């Protein structure tokens, strides 16, 4: 449950660096590293600001900020269900005062002969 809350409240940022249409680097939570193409263009003395071969893309999935839910935020059908389910679940586990004995009304058998001697079963 803690992992679910953590993953739903954290904002995720994914950055991609594309060079000539191919993905060169993907990064979570930070800026993606640039390829060596920009450094090579700077070393050649190309001072143009526009770099047509490289591109950076990023998208952010924002997390949930408000985690406070109250019973009044729920609709009437949901409130009725929660109350009925809780009441039914709590009454499911009622304790018994005494455990029932299923053979309480029957008398024990009468032993007229010694069965051990008749069957010749002896403990050694």
UniProtKB/TrEMBL annotation:
InterPro entries: DUF8199, HYC_CC_PP
Superkingdom of the source species: Bacteria
Matching Pfam families: DUF8199 (PF26622)
Protein name (database record): Uncharacterized protein
Organism of this sequence: Flagellimonas algicola
